Amino acid sequence: MSTAENPRKYLVTGGAGYVGGVVAQHLLEAGHRVTVLDDLSTGFREGVPAGAEFVEGRIQDAARWLDSSYDGVLHFAASSQVGESVAKPEKYWANNVGGTMALLTAMREAGVRTLVFSSTAATYGEPASSPITEDFPTSPTSPYGASKLAVDHMISGECTAHGLAAVSLRYFNVAGAYGAQGERHDPESHLIPLVLQVAQGRRDSIHVYGDDYPTPDGTCVRDYIHVADLAEAHLLAAAKAVPGEHLICNLGNGNGFSVREVIETVRKVTGHEVPETAAARRPGDPAVLVASADTARERLGWNPSRADLAGIVSDAWDFARRPKGE
């Protein structure tokens, strides 16, 4: 991994968002130069770390700023709400696929030949078993997942035809916080921040969608990965991408935690009551989704060190209690 003695210059698209902002911070801490490109449609200006140059704009216009001085691009700019993608698929094809096509063209014309792409486990759809490896069939169940899979196919073609060095990182459930950077989605759809909102009194209860799954406590099991571990994988990927190759890696802890385990952990960490409301299963919710991250370990040398659920929740709780604007 590059250090301050060997700084590089990166464009981080979507760097005002949750994951993009944390990755930008890690790049800066490693001594790199960072430009964040974000249209602030879902990101936040305060999410851009100090020390990064900020450009407000769309990835469709990346050619206006991207030039040969950049060593690579880390690409997070995307629409990412599964439910919205079902209601407005055209938005996801335009932003995620059309936007990335414009970015790839800008990179090719500028001679920028390294890309790390923020992909998703949604490309797999509803796998019949876990842990999930990269050779599992891809069968996305939403336009969001389909748009991300389409981008992966686009990147593969770019690598074969034009020598791009690219790594797609397929995330499972990203959680936690890194100092002043954490989840602030609006609307919020992720379990841990939703349960923390109940602990804060901002929400009356947490809905538990189904308690009769074939799991130890009857609730769905998911793989949670700390956002700082995720960020470290991106730096490794940027440093180890191989020209002409499109490497795809799952990112997860390889361990699953149930909905009830998350709720109970929040109770212990916060010391607050968290009332539950029973609800029917949601269509398409698999019982267990857990990643195999063996490829990331073997090819990138990645070793997540923050797998403890209580630690993940504690970092997210610290962020949730920060005064706005800090």
Describe this structure in words.
The protein has 326 residues and is an alpha/beta fold. It has helices at 18-29, 82-87, 89-110, 143-162, 191-199, 227-240, 259-270, 294-300, 309-320; strands at residues 9-13, 33-38, 53-56, 72-75, 114-120, 165-171, 173-175, 206-209, 221-222, 224-226, 246-251, 257-258, 276-279, 288-289. A 7-stranded parallel beta sheet has the order 3-2-1-4-5-6-11, with helices on both faces. Strand 5, helix 4 and strand 6 form a beta-alpha-beta unit. The longest helix has 22 residues, at 89-110. The radius of gyration is 19 Å and the shape is globular.
Which structural class fits the helix and strand makeup?
Answer: alpha/beta
Number of strands: 14
Estimate the global geometry from the Cα principal axes: globular
Using only C-alpha atoms, the radius of gyration works out to 19 Å
Low-pLDDT segments, ≥5 res: none
Strand content: 15-25%
- Number of H- or I-type helical stretches: 9
What is the makeup of the main sheet? 7 strands, parallel
Q: What percent of the residues sit in helical stretches (DSSP H or I)?
A: 25-40%
